[in-house]
């Protein structure tokens, strides 16, 4: 895939952990995957390895950071580069109350000069790309000049990759879930950014759930980022991988199951419960006859408690047999 940000999987809190990223990598061998947002405090004062460890197969993989102190972000970015991440991404789009209390996430869009200082500090600290994920506005503001000036300030600081979630962030009155659905999508704003900053990589995020629509967006933008669609219909990643580069082989379901069994075996041997590895696979068979049985088996607490990776193969067999082979 010639465009490095052509197909990206969004950072989703409590979703895109290392097991999910390994799974998504199998489905789309050339996609770029992102970690959950990790706060600078968690890395600098907590268990850094727990947040940063990943499998080599995940490359290219980006670390998304949450924070607003340039020095702390620079130090956290250094840790990320040392761990082997291919990109450091700054979260300027999360609208949750927890993030607001920490004065970062989407509320940073109101302080572009501070964000520029953060970007410069990280760029000075690492050699990998420093990128920014942001919204197109805050609350009920719809003036294009707001996001244009935000991007322009970061452009002057040297940032050249912007992941644009084409909705406003409503900081008061809407939950994070509602913020993904209620503020209207305004793809035209992202298109205007693409026109006004032609030397930048503009990746579109938000509301992309169908292959045809995603393909159309790929003709207008440098890349697309899928969030919930990748979680609820994972095989969309494979379909888009094939659209972008048919020469890249995509494993069939059986090959994915076998690879995930081998991976699960390694993780269980390290003390990781099988349920963590199986969780991102629950909707893998969405739309396939027998998918309900697949999901039931991979959600069954008693079966998962055995920590036997063979459960994945058994659930796959139940698709065609119509009953569990246990």
Automatic annotation (TrEMBL):
<dbReference type="InterPro" id="IPR035587">
    <property type="entry name" value="DUS-like_FMN-bd"/>
</dbReference>
<feature type="site" description="Interacts with tRNA">
    <location>
        <position position="180"/>
    </location>
</feature>
<dbReference type="GO" id="GO:0050660">
    <property type="term" value="F:flavin adenine dinucleotide binding"/>
</dbReference>
<feature type="binding site">
    <location>
        <position position="133"/>
    </location>
    <ligand>
        <name>FMN</name>
    </ligand>
</feature>
<feature type="site" description="Interacts with tRNA">
    <location>
        <position position="91"/>
    </location>
</feature>
<feature type="binding site">
    <location>
        <begin position="205"/>
        <end position="207"/>
    </location>
    <ligand>
        <name>FMN</name>
    </ligand>
</feature>
<keyword id="KW-0560">Oxidoreductase</keyword>
<dbReference type="InterPro" id="IPR018517">
    <property type="entry name" value="tRNA_hU_synthase_CS"/>
</dbReference>
<comment type="function">
    <text>Catalyzes the synthesis of 5,6-dihydrouridine (D), a modified base found in the D-loop of most tRNAs, via the reduction of the C5-C6 double bond in target uridines. Specifically modifies U20 and U20a in tRNAs.</text>
</comment>
<dbReference type="GO" id="GO:0102264">
    <property type="term" value="F:tRNA-dihydrouridine20 synthase activity"/>
</dbReference>
<keyword id="KW-0819">tRNA processing</keyword>
<keyword id="KW-0285">Flavoprotein</keyword>
<feature type="binding site">
    <location>
        <begin position="227"/>
        <end position="228"/>
    </location>
    <ligand>
        <name>FMN</name>
    </ligand>
</feature>
<comment type="similarity">
    <text>Belongs to the Dus family. DusA subfamily.</text>
</comment>
<keyword id="KW-0694">RNA-binding</keyword>
<dbReference type="InterPro" id="IPR013785">
    <property type="entry name" value="Aldolase_TIM"/>
</dbReference>
<dbReference type="GO" id="GO:0000049">
    <property type="term" value="F:tRNA binding"/>
</dbReference>
<feature type="binding site">
    <location>
        <position position="64"/>
    </location>
    <ligand>
        <name>FMN</name>
    </ligand>
</feature>
<feature type="domain" description="DUS-like FMN-binding">
    <location>
        <begin position="9"/>
        <end position="312"/>
    </location>
</feature>
<keyword id="KW-0820">tRNA-binding</keyword>
<dbReference type="InterPro" id="IPR004653">
    <property type="entry name" value="DusA"/>
</dbReference>
<protein>
    <recommendedName>
        <fullName>tRNA-dihydrouridine(20/20a) synthase</fullName>
        <ecNumber>1.3.1.91</ecNumber>
    </recommendedName>
</protein>
<feature type="active site" description="Proton donor">
    <location>
        <position position="94"/>
    </location>
</feature>
<dbReference type="GO" id="GO:0102266">
    <property type="term" value="F:tRNA-dihydrouridine20a synthase activity"/>
</dbReference>
<feature type="site" description="Interacts with tRNA; defines subfamily-specific binding signature">
    <location>
        <position position="295"/>
    </location>
</feature>
<feature type="binding site">
    <location>
        <position position="165"/>
    </location>
    <ligand>
        <name>FMN</name>
    </ligand>
</feature>
<keyword id="KW-0288">FMN</keyword>
<dbReference type="Pfam" id="PF01207">
    <property type="entry name" value="Dus"/>
</dbReference>
<feature type="site" description="Interacts with tRNA; defines subfamily-specific binding signature">
    <location>
        <position position="292"/>
    </location>
</feature>
<keyword id="KW-0521">NADP</keyword>
<feature type="site" description="Interacts with tRNA; defines subfamily-specific binding signature">
    <location>
        <position position="177"/>
    </location>
</feature>
<dbReference type="GO" id="GO:0010181">
    <property type="term" value="F:FMN binding"/>
</dbReference>
